[in-house]
Design goal:
single chain; mainly alpha
Amino acid sequence: MTLLGEGDIPIAEILSKFPSDINTAIEHPCGKDPLAVLKEEVTKLITIKQVDAH
């Protein structure tokens, strides 16, 4: 498992197949500072959803 944008699976492309008004959840390891990692990952998801909404 890796963080968003760091692995082989095109998460942004996959998420673009879903309606932008549905909730999104992805489980992955959070490392030594889970709160900081989660904040960064949420920001990535918001950015992906905003790009898909346009």
